Each structure stands twice: as C-alpha cells, then as structure tokens.
Amino acid sequence: MTALVAIDWGSTNCRAFRLGPGGEILEKRANAMGILAVKNANFSGALMDLARDWIDVPVAPPVLMAGMIGSAQGWIEAPYLPIPAGADDIAGHLVIAPDPRREINVVPGLRGSGAAGPDVMRGEETQIVGTGITDGVLCLPGTHSKWAVVEGGRIVRFLTFMTGEVFSLLRRNSILGRLMVDAPHDAPAYARGLVRSQSAGGILHQLFTVRTAGLLEGLSREAAPSFLSGLLIGHEIAAVKDILKPKSATVVGAGALAQNYAIAMSVAGIDTAFVPGEDAAARGLFAIALRAGLVR
Amino acid sequence: MTALVAIDWGSTNCRAFRLGPGGEILEKRANAMGILAVKNANFSGALMDLARDWIDVPVAPPVLMAGMIGSAQGWIEAPYLPIPAGADDIAGHLVIAPDPRREINVVPGLRGSGAAGPDVMRGEETQIVGTGITDGVLCLPGTHSKWAVVEGGRIVRFLTFMTGEVFSLLRRNSILGRLMVDAPHDAPAYARGLVRSQSAGGILHQLFTVRTAGLLEGLSREAAPSFLSGLLIGHEIAAVKDILKPKSATVVGAGALAQNYAIAMSVAGIDTAFVPGEDAAARGLFAIALRAGLVR
What we know:
The structure is a homodimer.
Chain A: E1 4-9, E2 14-19, E3 25-31, H1 43-55, E4 63-66, E5 81-82, E6 85-86, H2 87-91, E7 95-96, E8 104-106, E9 110-113, E10 118-121, H3 124-131, E11 136-140, E12 145-151, E13 154-161, H4 163-173, H5 187-196, H6 202-206, H7 208-216, H8 224-244, E14 248-252, H9 256-267, E15 271-275, H10 280-292
Parallel strand pairs in A: 1-4, 4-8, 5-9, 11-14, 14-15
Antiparallel strand pairs in A: 1-2, 2-3, 6-13, 7-8, 9-10, 11-12, 12-13
Helix pairs in contact in A: 3-10, 4-8, 5-8, 8-9
C-alpha cells in the first residue's frame, strides 16, 4: 500500500519515491526531467510520465513535492518561509499545485539572513528534516553547499556557498581548466590546496597560483583539480568557522565529496560526523506529510 | 623610416606597431590571431600575414615581441626573469625566435612571489615599462589584473588577480548569469557590490547574494552584472590594500573598467591617478629595444 508519493524535483533531475505507511521506500525512480528541462511548463505531464502508475490509481495516494518545483520557474511558487522553521512550520505552509485532477502539495523553501545578505534554500530544508537531526550544525555539500544550524528541530540559521558551481566553472571553462586533466582524487594535492587557502590575497589571487604551481612548483595536470578543490573548500570552511564557530558538524552524505569536506573540517579543528544523504529527501517529505496530516 | 617593428602578441590577439626613430607610432595593425589561434605553431607565417610589408624590405628593421608569444605555448619560451627587474634587466634577457630568415627578439616574462605562492606576468612587464613610471604602485585591470610596485624603474613586487576571468565565467556560464541581462553600467549597483564585498562570508558566500538580491532585494536583471562586478573588484582592492597598503596607485588605462577600479580604490581610501594604457606595449617595446641596442 502506498502511503505517500514523495517527489524531490530539482533544476536538473526529478526523483520519485513510493513510500509505505511507516515511511519505508517501496520503490524509487529518477529521470533527468529537472524543472529546466520541462517544456511549456507541462509539469503535470512530466510527473505522470515518471509516476502515473503510482498516482492514477483507484485510491489515489497523497503526493508531496520539494525542491525547485516550488520556485518561480517551477510548477507553482511556494513562498519562502522565514526561519526559524522546522517540520511543523513547513507542514503548515504547503502550497497546492494547479493540477485540476489531483491534489499535489509543494513544500516551501526557507529564507534567512546569511552573513552578507538574504539567503534562501529550496529542497535542502526537506533533506535536513530527513536527517532526523534536531540539534547541531549540518553541512550539505553540493553545487551550492548549505550549512544549517538546527536547534530543537528547527533551522535557526543557514549559509549558502557557491563552491561547487565555482569549481565546475573553473574546471570546465577557465584558463585554469586547460592546465588540468581528469584523474582520480589526489589527496596530497587537495591538502596543498587547503593550506594554500590559508595564505593571503584572497581567492581571486590564490586561484592564479593553480597556474603558477603548475609552471613553477611541479603541480601536475592530474593533481591540479584536487588542488583547486582544496583551495575552494578551504575558503568555505574558513568562512564557516569564522561565522558559525562550530565545534562539530555533521556532513550529510557519505561519498567522496563528503569525505573531502570532513578532511577540510578536521584541518580546521571542527569535529565531523556523517549522516546518510541518499534518500534524506524522501524521509523529510514523509515527516512533513505526517505533520501536515497528508499521511496518518 | 621604420626603426622598430614592435609586436604585442597575446593569447587572443596580435597587435603590431611600426615605430619611427623616436619611438613614434607610424602605423599600427591588429588581428585576432592570438597564439591560441595559430595553427601548427606557424607563428612565422602568422607574423608575415600581419606585417610582411614592414619586415621583408631591403633594409630589414629589428623586430621585438612581447606577451604570450614567449610562453611555452608560443613561438619560443623566453624563461621568466626573477624580480626585481626593469627595462635594462629585460633588455639583457631577450630570446631569439627560431626563424631561419630573420632575427626576431622576444621579451621574457617576470616571476616573483605573490601573497600565496609564485606569481608570473608576461606582457604586462612591457606595458609597465611603457608607462614611463619609475616609482609607484600600478594597477593594470584586465582578465588577470596585475598590481605592480615599481621602485627606481624596476618592478620589485607584483600580484595577479583573476577577477576579470571570474567575472566572465559567472556572467556567461553560471546560474547567476541566467539572472542577468546585458545593460549599461549601473553605478549604484556597482557601489552596492563594493559594499557587499566588505561583509562576512567570503566571495563564495557573497556570490549567492547576487541571486538573493534579485529575489528579495529588488536588484534588477539589468543591474546585476554591475553588482557582481563591484563584489569581485571590491575583493581585489581589499586584498591589495591588505598586502601592499598603497596610499596611492596609478591605473593603466582610461576606459570604463579603469574608471570602475578607480572608484573602488577611492572607496578603499587609495588615491588614484591614470596613465594611458593604449599603446603602452609599443612604448615599452621601444624602450627595451633601445636598451638592448636593437635601436640606436
């Protein structure tokens, strides 16, 4: 029996989960129909393509979605909820998508004050709920990595860093990228990048040393991506340390990127734990659906 | 009468000057055959395409080149000269390109210690000589902007910032670029960016506020590029102020970018002057050629 169809719908892909009465994942699917790929705003059609057999059934299960599907470019805009906010607050501000045939609920994003101006998240609030962590500092590495402070089950502060996107731009499109080849992660080069990030001149100056380290310090084309990664992640961790001053933090995820964040945090004197990131969105959507009364 | 054929040959274009006995520009030409566009390393052919009628004449004038043509990817590698270095030092380390029919001299680049590791320049040393400034701090805005400290006619320190390239990447290839449209420079938005650069969180965090300022603070798509520019240039100037502590500096150039640098410097309390940047390479090449005895 399907208790909830949970959809994590981002810019570049769509992941669907069929959940049982205890929140267990009965089935999951994904495709590359992120909101940017959906033509003519036919989100209803795209959802049916992925999960019609779960949804169009005699006793239709509730459907709850999170992510960029709730942005101005998505199916319906679910206004950002101000922090502090937890699962109860989020559950109280669901928005219903304009589908004439079904009730499809959408989770709002969150807004707060970063260290330099307003900050927002959309999708990560659901993953954070899904970790089950009610107190602590969480790190969600990614294209736009998020750091969140959770107290009593509510997100009370968060910060976004464009580290992953800046890495990709420099790797793929910059003059530095021409000095690199794809290769397995190089741990010593990554550590060199972390150390380099602590020197003077700021990122815009230090980035040029990716080039000069290749010319004059023997950094290989294979090692250069890891060096660049260390340089950028080192800056992110330094800023977090400066602003949030966490003694410990939990990295959401378990892959190579999560490990690299943990190394950088360790170098910065921040104790690190891990919590699984995979399917955190599904667990979060189930928790929010319970509180919203969509699931009993 | 041609006293010198001076070539400023960079990655993306080639500029040629025919200079008279006093260094005056008699004629100039340019094309888009930067060293990256030259096929099969046929630099000799590319030079002839641009300036054969100046060079293949009964009394052949000396030819002197500067820029990336002297890099490992260019015609011949002219090893980086360590700083301190001035026109005399540079003139003493010219390298001859492997052209069997003509003597073609190439200016070496310079290397020094930046604030975070080794630093190099190639081409800018010639422009700096060409400004005629023998004492002071010079700023050369560009894709990779350079700051140089000149004492007694020698470059004693310099720093590179990848500000221009990072701006282009973010403008053209990032998610932030999708929130922007091309428009005339917006001075108030640029100033907002300068101010934003002074807040906490570092560049990687502050960049995300380009997005949130559009979502929540009324920053228009037209104004966003100027805001981003202010954010990045603000970081560059802050780093320079921190490291070089200049009371005043001279911006090489006179266009919009030079003006914007001057505004950022003024906000940071650095007195600013301008020196023309156009044709500074030609003046520098002439000064170096004089000292090398290529021109009498």
